[in-house]
Specification:
This protein has three domains: 130 residues, Aldehyde Oxidoreductase, domain 3; 334 residues, 2-Layer Sandwich (Aldehyde Oxidoreductase, domain 4), CATH 3.30.365.10; 133 residues, Aldehyde oxidase/xanthine dehydrogenase, molybdopterin binding domain (Aldehyde Oxidoreductase, domain 4). The chain is globular. It has 17 helices and 29 strands. Helices cover 25% and strands 25% of the residues. Keywords: Oxidoreductase.
Length: 771
């Protein structure tokens, strides 16, 4: 490579490699700040001359607004604005999949907590006092609270003009009237789970001189928030600019709007920056939850354990507004037989409007509910066959090349049987009789309520299938811009996407991809905002796949541009060049410092990444050549101890085997599996929003319990890497599958310990004690 003026020129091939690339586990750039409490979350935002926004919410699940008087609130000293639906500048409606949600209620409220009015004041306490002075008179109506009735009872009130059914989807394969030698059936129910993120909904809106507004917020999808907000504000997209701020957890609960439109309305109305921060009580009312479900399942098999048919009817309570209910129905029905070969299937799924709290996305969207049912059914079938439950699962497990009940052929590895085999090989914890027991290790032992009387041990297994990314014809894509330049005498890559870092470690993954593709050590992540193309939501386990793919494509384009520059200047063949250790390396081994190549002329490229095309499910048969982009698989084994006298459960061990395609960041993969498993454990034994007559009974972390470190057991984790040939680096989504498989494994273990036919999750002490 002739370049006589370059001091970096050498004839030796480089041995050095950039660390922190694909397959390494570099330190997360935000980790130290987060553990030391120095990290700035959206609730920490501040601006000069800032006002505080607050929301008046309906106390009734279903009521007609008779009158609304804001006059006294406006007289409150320090109050700068009181807004109602009449002040919405654009359309008073928004929605993720269906535009059915009012920005502020007009004549009807459909759930407890629905926003009715807004206040901006110079102090949060002043805003709260002003809310108390708003007088709303309601005509209380009888709420619709039973989703199964909402599906079939035409005498119930229609909560929306089109009725109470958001979506109905059947899936039919083979003979829907098939019979079998061994049949098991039951009715399974799942309670409403909360995402329980620790960072409340919050943001800061700053009006701009151009008549637009800038919003700094915590969200999962900047561009969909921007589109819905601009529509409600009556502004063009370019005048509604969103920037990601620190996110204190999400798990699906930030896909729907909360304070976005409200905060911008107040800022534009007052001409001052406005900050809104929900407290925990308002957060329970102000975001969607996991859909509760009622599921009728029947499995038929031969005497030797081969599945003959699966029949199911599933009802999902979407609450007052649609949110992601259509997708929940799609995922549940298309994955409702589990990772098994079933020749005959009849599944029906309903998503319903009720006057219960709105439900939407939560980790494992639409796959959690049926997995609980079909995996408890598999244990029940194994008992009826007098067969080992693991053998039964392996006997019926799908493999690559098999067809699912929707007709989609699995065109990448599906190591379901292997995952179960790996779990079985993991050592079990010592039996209680074999080791001295510390009373604190017993169920309820930390409260000194038990010394081992009535404690029994059980083991349970589960294995699940989960779709990755969006489905049914959605053109799911992401955009990335990568710039390579010289800063401080060294080559630096700048990666800019709109993808939301919600704690999953996405910014680290983007750094790893840039290091691998560009051979540079220093990679900076531009704050996510709407000044670049859409990246989609941080949900559906899709970001490493989709936005990671976009970053790789942009990096590839940058690398090719660098090679073209080298070829033009030095006459080298671009096909023989590589980037490594901040150097350009030729096929002969000669090197040129990348700093010399770039000089003062950065290279910048923007690219979109689109995955394989998917297709809608047939509305009558549910058949589709490709419903989902990709499938992921996870298996759990739970060991539990149950105090049958007190109804207390302790999960002793919760082991997982999961196929991740490629572990881009092995430490982060293990962390995701641990976190997902713990969330699934919570759903199994403690997490449930109690709703009676449409009203939440436990909207606080005092009464809504989530697992702590004392509830989280040891976890042995085995990670398989069976690459998907269609995805970047062969990756599969990681974050959701362990949440799905942990819950049925724990409940199956409790059933194994007690012999009880438990059919509701979470399992309560009352269920275990028969009261």
């Amino acid at each position: 490579m002739p370049h006589p003026t370059s001091p970096a020129r050498t004839s030796q091939r480089l041995d050095e490699a950039v660390t922190g690339g694909i397959g390494d586990s570099p330190l997360r750039p935000d980790s130290t700040l987060k553990v030391t409490g120095e990290y700035a979350y959206s609730s920490d935002l501040w601006a000069e001359d800032m006002l505080w926004g607050s929301t008046l919410r309906s106390p009734h699940p279903y009521a007609r607004i008779s009158s609304l008087d804001i006059s006294e609130a406006l007289k409150q000293p320090g109050v700068h604005a009181v807004l109602t639906h009449q002040d919405v500048p654009g359309e008073n409606v928004y929605g993720l999949k269906v535009s059915d949600t009012p920005v502020l209620a007009e004549d009807i409220v459909r759930y407890q907590g629905e926003p009715v009015a807004l206040v901006a004041a110079d102090h949060p306490e002043t805003a709260r006092r002003a809310l108390a002075k708003i007088v709303v008179e309601y005509e209380v109506l009888e709420p619709v609270t039973d989703p199964e009735r909402a599906a079939h009872d035409d005498t119930l009130p229609k909560l929306h003009p089109e009725g109470n059914i958001v979506r109905y989807q059947p899936v039919v394969k083979g003979d829907s009237e098939a019979e079998a030698e061994v049949v098991v059936s039951d009715v399974y129910t799942m309670g409403m789970q909360d995402q329980a993120f620790l960072g409340p909904e919050s943001g800061l809106a700053i009006p701009d001189e151009d008549g637009g507004v800038d919003l700094f917020l915590a969200t999962q999808w900047l561009h969909v928030d921007q589109r819905q907000t601009a529509h409600a504000l009556g502004l063009p997209l370019e005048k509604v600019r969103f920037t990601m701020s620190g996110v204190g957890g999400a798990f699906g609960g930030r896909e729907d709007l909360s304070m976005q439109i409200h905060c911008c309305m107040l800022a534009l109305h007052t001409g001052r920056p406005v900050k809104m921060v929900y407290d925990r009580l308002e957060s329970f009312y102000g975001h969607v939850h996991r859909h509760p479900a009622k599921m009728y399942y029947e499995h038929g098999a031969t005497k030797d354990g081969k599945l003959v048919y699966v029949k199911a009817r599933m009802y999902f309570d979407g609450g007052a507004y649609a949110s992601k209910t259509p997708v929940v129905v799609s995922n549940a029905t298309s994955l409702g037989t589990g990772p098994y070969v079933v020749p005959n299937v009849r599944i029906e799924g309903w998503g319903l409007y009720t006057n219960n709290p709105p439900c939407g996305a939560m980790r494992g969207l639409g796959a959690v509910q049926p997995a609980f049912a079909y995996e408890l059914q598999m244990d029940k079938l194994a008992a009826a066959l007098e067969m080992d439950p693991v053998r039964l699962r392996q006997l019926n497990a799908v493999e690559e090349g098999d067809s699912l009940h929707t007709g989609q052929v699995l065109d990448s590895p599906a190591p379901v049987a292997e995952l179960l085999a790996r779990l079985e090989r993991m050592p079990l914890p010592p039996e209680p009789a074999d080791v001295p027991r510390d009373v604190r290790t017993l169920p309820g032992g930390l409260s000194n309520t038990s010394h081992g009387e009535g404690v029994v041990r059980g083991i349970g297994y589960s294995v699940i299938i989960k779709n990755v990314s969006y489905a049914e014809g959605v053109d799911d894509y992401s955009t990335a811009r990568v710039r390579l330049e010289v800063i401080g005498g060294a080559p630096v890559a700048l990666v800019h996407t709109a993808a939301a870092e919600v704690g999953q470690g996405l910014i680290t993954v983007h750094q790893q991809i840039a290091r691998t593709e560009l051979g540079v050590e220093r990679v900076t992540i531009h704050p996510a905002d709407t000044n670049i193309g859409d990246a989609g939501s941080s949900s559906a386990s899709r970001q490493t796949y989709i936005t990671g793919g976009a970053v790789r494509e942009a990096c590839t384009a940058v690398r090719e541009a660098v090679f073209a520059r080298v070829a033009q200047r030095f006459g080298e063949d671009p096909a023989g060049l590589t980037l490594s250790g901040g150097k350009v390396v030729s096929a002969s081994g000669a090197v040129l410092d990348l700093v010399e190549v770039l000089g003062e002329e950065p290279v910048e490229e923007t690219r979109e990444y689109h995955h394989l095309q998917t297709y809608k499910m047939d509305p009558v048969t549910g058949q589709s050549r490709r419903v989902h982009v990709q499938h992921a698989y996870a298996a759990h084994r739970a060991v539990v101890e149950v105090d049958t006298e007190l109804g207390l459960v302790k999960v002793v061990q919760l082991d997982c085997a999961q196929d991740v395609g490629k572990a881009v960041n092995p430490d982060a993969v293990v962390g995701q599996i641990q976190g997902g498993s713990t969330q699934g454990l919570g759903l199994a034994v403690m997490e449930e929003i109690k709703v009676k007559d449409g009203k939440i009974r436990n909207p606080s972390f005092t009464d809504y319990l989530i697992p702590t470190i004392l509830d989280t057991p040891p976890m042995r984790i085995e990670v398989l890497e069976r690459a998907d040939p269609h995805s970047p680096y062969g990756v599969r989504g990681v974050g959701e599958p362990p949440t799905i498989s942990a819950t049925p494994a724990v409940v199956n273990a409790i059933r194994n310990a007690t012999g009880l036919n438990l059919t509701h999750t979470p399992v309560s002490p009352e269920q275990l004690c028969g009261s």
